[in-house]
Structures are given as structure tokens and as C-alpha cells.
């Protein structure tokens, strides 16, 4: 049965047919999986308090390519961007919605030294690292768009990554947080559960199940090697009821925008739930500027975040504009320019890398926007 596309915010720079099937096939260059185990608007019984409590931060993939370049010119191409948007419904956070009492265990195998603001590792990539101040900032836009992603890696156990809401029903994360890189359907992880503004075992805006996941061929056929040209993925999220009215996740949290081809040169706020800092129980933020590029198609920034921060957004011009604030040559507020993809084995270098968002990102987003009316 054909339905007219009602999504008014599908990206205008891609031609889209006026009628589409409810479940469009993914465009070439991607691999996807539909969630057949959880019906729409329902909650999986898999995630017991014990499983949530014992889920471990997914280790950051370690870089294996050594082709490092320090560029002096911007990336080539015309960036494509979309604006972020604050929540459209007023849903107050509910920290009584306690999922479990978090473990007070540091999952890091090596104890990191305390990192001070304006720090740098041995490679000289400067950054500032901090808890949110105050901690309750995680319930306010734009922080509340960021959350913790729980999932199961078959045969390995339960793990956590990070992610961010970028459209009314779409969450962005890393490719290695949804797929092993083995090249086929069997590589997909399962039991995805996204908790925006997660803090200390609580889900202040509820826990959201998934209906569809998609990642790039570059990641799924890359054998887990990083840097990777397109280590990112997206999940379609099921709606949830609030006071008897079903809401899309982006209505509740707001959404971050994006900007392609803008990772170098730039500066950004890196957000996520690293297991080495506050045991992954609180959202963490790093501010840094582009440090160097690395083949293929990746850029590195200074950071002390490690496993669990994978998939977290790198956001340019993060925050809320002040009265009288305008101008500049790159004014787009709250736009994602990358997501955490990899980091070094040793704790001393203190940097993380991200794939550069390009046409693959845009095509993936359009695929999800077309899949179901109201996704975007």
C-alpha cells in the first residue's frame, strides 16, 4: 500500500518521490536491519535492571592506519547542513524513573591519571574535559539530545555506547556500535535501547526501543579497521506515550543539526558517556579543536574520553546564543560535524578520531527520512 510522504523536513537537496512504500529499501552503499522482535510502541523485556547494571562500555576501536597528515587547508566540497531544534513539547525530567542502581566500578583496565582543564597528551592535542556544570544541565536542550545506547553483542555480552537525536525519530551513533564490521546481516548487534539524558541509572525521559538500524558499507565491510571512511550509523526509534499522548523522541529531547565536510578546520564540543570518567554514569563533555587528519577520511581532536563514548556527537557552536550574538563565518548552532569513532591503545596520547560526514551521511539520513512518514 502506497502512502504520501508527509515528512516536511526531508532534506531538500535530494529529489524524493511523492509516494513511497512505508518501508523503503535502503539506498545502495548501506546495510540495514529491521527489528522484528519488538512491536512498535512496546518495550522489550530483555533489559532487566541487572543487565542494564552490568552492561560494559564498548572499547574504542584502536587505529591501525598510520597515514597521518596535518592539513593547512579546509576540506574540499560544499558543506550540507541542517539546523537543530529545541523540544516541541514540555516534558519535565523524572529521575524517579530509576532503572537500576549503577555499579561503582571503573571498567578501565588501566587507571588514568586525573586530567586537568586545558590538558594535552603526548601528541600535543589540547582540550578541556569536564563534567557538566551543573549536573542537571543534562536535562536541558541541547544536552538532553544526547544519551546512552545499550545493546547486545551476540556471544559477547551487553555493552554501552553513546548517541544523539538528530531528527524526530532518528538517533545517530557510530557504525561500530551497531555492527561488528563482518560484512553481512549476521554482524548486526541487537536489543538496542536508547536513554536520553541518562544519569546514575535513571531515565529522566524514559527508555526508547528501536525499529530499524542502518550503517554504511564502508563500516560493515571494513573488517573493524579504523580509521574508517564512514564509521557512523542511525537508528529509527519507536514513539512512547507521555500523559496518554504518543510522542516522537525528538519532540521530547529536541534535535541536533548537522553539517557535512566541516570537521577540519573547526572546534567542537565532544559529548558522551565514557566508562573511564565517572564510570560512565554521567554525561561528559570535552571541548577541543581539530588537531590532524588521518587517512581514510578522518580527523582527530584532543580528548581523554575512552570506551563508552563511541558514537557520541562532536558538535560545533554548541549551546544557546546570547542576545546580540551573531556573525562569524561558521554560525550554525548545535550542528554535529562528527561522531566518536576510535582512540589510541595507550592512555597517554589523549585523542579521539571521527569519520568526516559526507554524502554517505546525507544519503543514509534521507533513506531513514523516507522509510516512515514523520521520521524527519
TrEMBL record:
GO terms for molecular function, please?
Answer: serine-type endopeptidase activity
Annotated PROSITE patterns: TRYPSIN_HIS
From which residue to which does any coiled coil extend?
none
Q: What is its EC number?
A: 3.4.21.-
**InterPro entries listed in its UniProt record:** Glutamyl_endopeptidase, Peptidase_S1_PA, Peptidase_S1_PA_chymotrypsin, Peptidase_S1B, TRYPSIN_HIS
On whether Hydrolase is a keyword of this UniProt record, the answer is: yes
**Keyword Signal: yes or no?**
yes
The entry's keywords: Hydrolase, Protease, Serine protease, Signal
Q: Which domain of life is it from?
A: Bacteria
- Name a single GO biological process: proteolysis
Q: Which family does it belong to?
A: Belongs to the peptidase S1B family.
Name listed for the protein in its UniProt record: Serine protease
Species name for this entry? Answer: Chroogloeocystis siderophila 5.2 s.c.1
